[in-house]
């Protein structure tokens, strides 16, 4: 029998449609996989106890001749930042331990309506603050390529689940790189859609002007299939774009023919320093560019002089917005309340926030309230917003000359657990190439470009496109994916050593 967990979502969907496999069988195979390896990987915070029921319902409906969507019956992992009515939603924080939402996030509701089968909720840095998933209040997630290494963050759980074959599809959220950087370090595909392209309703807010929900998968086509399910206008989200979107799965299929690379102008940022990038990351990036060039793409040097100030601007804008968004966790409205006998309501609030929030969350609340305080607003928050505008202009100028911009998705391969946890600045610098897209609202994709020579760990290449041109990323991503797959002969993830061929994680 085929190993159901190794199929891509597209392959699984076609077997489900033909009746060769049932959703119950596919779901059971993934639950078995989770039971076998998640003790080591810890991708999940919660595993659904009714996934099989949902799957059986899909099977029944299919048997009854109901017209189901293209991915009906395929299992899905959901980042715990997205609220769900039938499973707790904690956003990786103690302050929301056991919290049950009265409604589903729009992306979750759409996933259910499309017949996807929620397997559970995945681990993440607390309130999506981090690049390693070590800031989760519930313990770190481990990278399936090497269990002593980080799976990226904040969506390390979703990326690890997909990389460890615990789920074919996962939902993530990307405020500064939390979909793309985990994809980079786990050898998976991650997409941050255009700002407003996917609803944020029910995504527990980190920084509302930067947050976007997106797909985490093993192939570009799978990401397109999931994006088609979750994307499009949502009246519940006032920043949701109203236009109709093309099918991203169709774009991926078109891209896989490779024609799109002919004459494609790929911009490479001249100011991006070579220093700070691990040698194997730079080599893999250059090799991917060369592979594209061999297919007729043109590599064009472009200037984006303000790109390098992205991290600095982001770490003022994000904490400012986060400090405001997290004010609602006040011991009264949601989750945890720590009583202070004889204390005032302020005492209860202070104690609850002290106990309920972790160190990184407190650090950012302090940073944010400082940057927004009367005397410093112009100097910090105001200046950061100006830099944001300059970065947007850099993109506008660049996209007048090129079709897509390419960068390595992150500066290094997966680092060791514990290596950067005590050095916030080092942690923040992981997102140097991903953050500008969030500041400008443009879409980005990370796809595996190969393994770094020095450590054998996965490397990702990121493509960025103008706002609303997400389909272009699927075409280009799928084209390069096809070229690289030809070179490798088998998917990169087949080489992940810590997983074994079929068995346990070690
Ligand atoms: N690593 C970044 C941060 O810590 C990105 C977070 C995110 O995209 N949610 O803010």
TrEMBL record:
**Catalytic center residues:** 79, 154, 178
Q: Which residues form a coiled coil?
A: none
User: Is Protein biosynthesis set as a keyword in this record?
Assistant: yes
Extract the InterPro entries matched here.
Answer: Amidase (IPR000120), Amidase_CS (IPR020556), Amidase_dom (IPR023631), AS_sf (IPR036928), GatA (IPR004412)
Name the enzyme group at the top EC level: ligase
Catalytic activity from the UniProt record: L-glutamyl-tRNA(Gln) + L-glutamine + ATP + H2O = L-glutaminyl-tRNA(Gln) + L-glutamate + ADP + phosphate + H(+)
SUPFAM superfamilies cross-referenced by the UniProt entry:
Amidase signature (AS) enzymes
Q: Where is each Amidase domain found?
A: 25-473
> This protein's superkingdom?
Bacteria
Record EC number: 6.3.5.7
Family assignment from sequence similarity = Belongs to the amidase family. GatA subfamily.
State the oligomer form and interacting partners: Heterotrimer of A, B and C subunits.
Q: What does this protein do?
A: Allows the formation of correctly charged Gln-tRNA(Gln) through the transamidation of misacylated Glu-tRNA(Gln) in organisms which lack glutaminyl-tRNA synthetase. The reaction takes place in the presence of glutamine and ATP through an activated gamma-phospho-Glu-tRNA(Gln).
Q: What is this protein called?
A: Glutamyl-tRNA(Gln) amidotransferase subunit A
């Amino acid at each position: 029998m085929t190993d159901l967990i190794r199929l891509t979502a597209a392959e699984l969907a076609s077997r489900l449609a033909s009746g060769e496999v049932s959703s119950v069988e596919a779901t059971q195979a993934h639950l078995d996989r989770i039971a076998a390896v998640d003790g080591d990987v810890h991708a999940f915070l919660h595993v659904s106890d009714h996934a099989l029921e949902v799957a059986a319902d899909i099977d029944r409906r299919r048997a009854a001749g109901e017209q189901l969507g293209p991915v009906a019956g395929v299992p899905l992992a959901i980042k715990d930042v997205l609220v769900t009515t039938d499973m707790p939603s904690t956003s990786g924080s103690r302050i929301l331990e056991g919290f049950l939402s009265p409604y589903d996030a729009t992306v979750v509701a759409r996933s259910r309506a499309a017949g996807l089968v929620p397997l559970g909720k995945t681990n993440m840095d607390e309130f999506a603050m981090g690049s390693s998933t070590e800031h989760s209040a519930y313990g770190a997630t481990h990278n399936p390529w090497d269990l002593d290494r980080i799976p990226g963050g904040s969506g390390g759980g979703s990326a690890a689940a997909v990389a460890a074959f615990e789920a074919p599809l996962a939902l993530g959220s990307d405020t500064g790189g939390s979909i793309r950087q985990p994809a980079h370090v786990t050898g998976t595909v991650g997409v941050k859609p255009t700002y407003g392209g996917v609803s944020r309703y029910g995504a527990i807010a980190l920084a509302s002007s930067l947050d976007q929900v997106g797909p985490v998968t093993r192939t570009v086509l799978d990401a397109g299939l999931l994006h088609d399910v979750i994307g499009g206008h949502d009246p519940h989200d006032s920043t949701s774009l109203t236009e109709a979107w093309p099918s991203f799965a169709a774009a991926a299929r078109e891209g896989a023919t490779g024609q799109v690379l002919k004459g494609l102008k790929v911009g490479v940022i001249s100011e991006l320093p070579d220093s700070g990038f691990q040698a194997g990351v730079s080599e893999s990036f250059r090799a991917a560019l060369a592979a594209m060039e061999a297919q007729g793409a043109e590599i064009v040097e472009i200037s984006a002089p303000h790109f390098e100030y992205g991290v600095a601007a982001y770490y003022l804008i994000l904490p400012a917005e986060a400090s405001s968004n997290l004010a609602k966790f006040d011991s009264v409205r949601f989750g945890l309340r720590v009583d202070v006998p004889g204390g005032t309501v302020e005492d209860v609030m202070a104690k609850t926030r002290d106990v309920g929030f972790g160190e990184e969350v407190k650090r950012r609340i302090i940073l944010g309230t400082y940057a927004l305080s009367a005397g410093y607003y112009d100097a910090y928050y105001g200046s950061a917003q100006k830099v944001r505008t300059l970065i947007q202009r850099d993109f506008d100028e660049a996209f007048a000359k090129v079709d897509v911009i390419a960068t390595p998705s992150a500066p290094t391969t997966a680092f060791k657990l514990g290596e950067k946890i005590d050095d916030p600045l080092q942690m923040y610098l992981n997102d140097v190439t991903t953050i500008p897209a969030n500041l400008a609202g443009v879409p980005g994709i990370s796809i595996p470009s190969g393994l770094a020579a020095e450590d054998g760990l996965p490397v990702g290449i990121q493509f960025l496109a103008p706002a609303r041109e997400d389909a272009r990323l699927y075409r280009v991503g799928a084209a390069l994916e096809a070229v690289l797959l030809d070179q490798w002969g088998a998917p990169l993830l087949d080489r992940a050593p810590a997983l074994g061929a079929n068995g346990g994680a070690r």
